[in-house]
Amino acid sequence: MKKLFQFDMKQTHLTLRVLAGLLISFTLQAVAHAQLQPGAEAPAFTAPAALAGKTFTFTLTEALKKGPVVVYFYPKAFTSGCSIEANLFAQASDDFRGLGASVVGVSGDDIETLKKFSLGPCGGKFAVAADLDRTTMKAYQATMFFSSEMASRISYVVTPDRKIFFTHASLSPDQHVSTTLAAVKRWREQAK
């Protein structure tokens, strides 16, 4: 009887690992396919935003008059992955500015939370916008596959003609900054 129970536990663990693997695979596939593609028109949006603890109204159309914009979506301020990603964007903000690009992070967080987040992990270096009604997330196909209430981790490089130049979707925060910075550089080279 004991041996049978041990076998069942091993089988249960194996089944759980298989199911977890399938869920991760499905999640990554859903993230990879649920996004706007390069060449698509970037939806215009206006949203309450915070920069260095101060609130203002962010307008994509106005920001694009100054150069390309990295619009990155993230699930929730002050979570570990989102804080890592924001800090990486903050560290690279001078590099983006040097290429004439700006960065805006978008989440479903309220503006009071974003005022604090803009001072904390964002280091006062770039704006974060509140998408309380999730219209911007939905327009950019940037909601989590299992919940339209939360943004997925997707980054877009939008060029001044309001076209998506580059898309990077990954649940991991690590490559969003380096890939979007490289894309802005490529766009600059092509625009010469």
Question: What key phrases describe this protein's structure?
Answer:
9 strands; Glutaredoxin; two-stranded antiparallel sheet; 7 helices; alpha+beta; 192 residues
What do you see in this structure?
By secondary structure, the protein is α+β, with helices and mostly antiparallel strands. The chain contains seven helices and nine strands; from the N terminus they run H-E-E-H-E-H-H-E-H-E-H-E-E-E-E-H. The chain has a single domain, classed as Glutaredoxin (3-Layer(aba) Sandwich), CATH 3.40.30. The protein has a seven-stranded mixed sheet. A two-stranded antiparallel ribbon has the order 6-7.
Brief write-up:
The chain is α+β, with helices and mostly antiparallel strands and 192 residues long. The chain contains 7 helices and 9 strands.
Topology:
Elements: H1 2-33, E1 46-51, E2 54-59, H2 60-64, E3 69-73, H3 80-91, H4 93-98, E4 102-107, H5 111-119, E5 127-130, H6 135-139, E6 143-144, E7 147-151, E8 154-158, E9 164-169, H7 176-191
Parallel strand pairs: 3-4, 4-5
Antiparallel strand pairs: 1-2, 1-5, 3-8, 6-7, 8-9
